[in-house]
Automatic annotation (TrEMBL):
Carboxymuconolactone decarboxylase-like domain ranges (all copies): 40-120
Pfam families, per database record: CMD (PF02627)
InterPro entries in UniProt: AhpD-like (IPR029032), CMD-like (IPR003779)
Protein name: Carboxymuconolactone decarboxylase family protein
Organism: Flagellimonas marina
Domain of life according to the entry: Bacteria
Gene3D superfamilies: AhpD-like
Length: 200
């Protein structure tokens, strides 16, 4: 079971209203948010940050933002966030070929050089120690402007928070997220791990 029990979706009316955002992105309110409700100021601040980070202000598409989130979550090993990110990428129109080959983004023809630069940025920024260097910066600036780079790093940083939260919490993973993860990530060994609801 999770470190802390998620609260009922009706526990905090303001969080419930804000959390309707996730019905669009995931098709359900995530257990991570239901757990954050133990301190409603955290759940509300998190949802508002999530909405701001995921808003489209330039050419960084909703699908690419979710693939950036997946690469970040894959780098840190959070299986809960890997599943959520690939599900959201699917729901936001990522190409089928990209979803099927996300593990091979560096070489697969379904990904453009601009997308590869963004995804490599996510990978480098999510490592410990941080691996951002002059080459990553140069490749980013070949394809993206400063505002778009800020959007990307917003996604990476948001998922840094989520990766820590969900992996430490052992957040129980929802059925819809499991379905997407098994479809797109299962062939590479994805499994629920500590998020199966029975550990801790």
């Amino acid at each position: 079971m999770a470190l802390v029990t998620p609260l009922d979706p009706n526990h905090d009316p303001e969080t419930k209203q804000l959390a309707e955002f996730f019905n669009e992105t995931l098709g359900f309110c995530p257990n991570s948010v239901l757990t954050m409700q133990h301190r409603p100021a955290i759940s509300k601040a998190f949802i508002n940050l999530n909405k701001a980070v995921m808003a489209n202000e330039g050419r960084v598409t909703s699908a690419l933002k979710r693939m950036i989130a997946w690469v970040s979550s894959n780098a840190t090993g959070c299986r809960y966030c890997q599943a959520h990110a690939i599900r959201a990428a699917e729901r936001y129109g990522a190409e089928q070929e990209q979803l099927d080959n996300i593990w091979e983004y560096r070489t697969h023809p379904a990904f453009s050089e601009a997308e590869r630069a963004a995804l490599d940025f996510s990978l480098a920024a999510s490592q410990v120690p941080n691996a951002i260097n002059a080459e990553i910066k140069e490749r980013l600036y070949q394809h993206w402007n400063e505002g778009e780079i800020v959007e990307m790093l917003g996604v990476i940083s948001l998922f840094g928070y989520l990766n820590r939260w969900n992996d430490s919490m052992g957040t129980s993973i929802e059925d819809g997220a499991v379905e997407s993860a098994e479809q797109y990530l299962g062939k590479h060994g994805w499994e629920k791990g500590k998020h199966d609801g029975s550990r801790y």
